[in-house]
Amino acid sequence: MNNRIAVIDEDIRGWAKKHEGELRETYSDLLKAGKNGDLPELSSDPLIASYCKRKKCDLFTADKKSYTHYFGSDKCPIQIMEYGSEESGKKIFLIQVLE
Fold this sequence. Notes:
The chain is α/β, with parallel strands linked by helices. It is 31% helix and 27% strand. The chain has a five-stranded mixed beta sheet.
């Protein structure tokens, strides 16, 4: 089994629930911001970015612009790709911390 961890941003938890089977094929653990003890409800973008950098987690979010600022603030190399979309058309992005 893989040891990769993904953080799911609060605004796309519904999308993540619908795609949980697909995500679990790649990730051993899915941490939901607002539901996980390390990322309490309404965790700020800087806190989530810091957690992902420290733990080397991938992040699924619809808020690409905000996170590019927080991940890039200390020259942390990241990769951002469009992963999918919600039924409403909102795009889902995968942000990966590169080592």
